[in-house]
Design a protein that fits this description.
By secondary structure, this protein is of the alpha+beta class. It has nine helices and five strands, in the order ααααβββββααααα.
Length: 371
Amino acid sequence: MFLKFDRYVTRQVFATALYAVVILSVVLVLGNLFKEINELLVERGAPIAFLGIFILKLLPVSLVYTIPWGFLAAVLLVFGRLSSDQEINSLRSTGMSLYRIAAPVLGLGLALSLLCLWLNATVSPRSKGELKMMLYETFKDDPLRLLDPGVVQSRMKGQRIYIEARNPDDSFQGFHAYELGRDESSLWPAGYLYAKDVASIAPDKAVEKLELRLSGVWLERYDEDTLLQQGAAGKIEPWVLPLEVGQSRRLKANRLDNDQIRELLANPPDNLDQKKLDEFDAERIRRISFSFAPLALAFVGIPLGLSARRKQTSSGSGMSLAVAVGYFLFFIIADETQGSNLMLTKSLMWLPNLACLAFGIFLFRRATKRA
């Protein structure tokens, strides 16, 4: 039977969790936005309205992480207050067990876990794919944005391009192109090309390429930091830039929902080896396991919240941070095992939930004995 107390504690936890999720989501979304804003506004020249769409598409990705964390913080804070106000002792005196007191919150945790499963397995990967496609289409509509002056263009794999100036007739001056080596983090390029003047040919969207006519050219080739050869040329044409920049032709697990991954595993394409298929399978299991984070963290958060003392509201935030970091750390370790043993990876991905369940039961029993 759903008692008045059940409605009271559920409303308190839900309201606090909603507030925490909003704050955390704003922080994560703005953090990602500031990271991408230079590329969106400067490199790609995207309109301001595009940022609003970008935020809406990014929100489901952030909710996958902020819902578990916000719910854990809410559980710690609410049960800490109930404990410090002696409300838990009053309920215990009526014969209610700690498990019965926690039942409505665990039920709310299960409901949020199902919401996270929907977000994690369906909405979030689709949003990531749509974000990538939006960036690609925005660029493809005006491919000359790739050559905006004064900005180092880094969207082309293995290349960096810098333009000094752009003329009114869409020709350019001071074209610098750096070819990166196999290790793109190397401080020394594998090749360098400079052109004094650049004229662009009308982009061919059918074959997705942009051709440039270069004049006043200087070229250099390197082996690490050793100059191998250099030379000058009056003209080089055409210099081809692919318009599929930013549009990966490879299948990526984080942009496919679970149904698509399941279909891909059932009918694998010829260009994917077994190691790559294992990565898709591991990603599918990781999403399912991680979706139950709200329920798993609630098992730990409730007894930890009961141990909080009066006026120690900051302890809820500190404990939620410590527990959440430990929980997420398990998934990082599991991701590092990918490629070595698929069964081990799948097992490790379920370990955080099982560990929280076991630790939570231990804390519940200890709290019962103390009561």
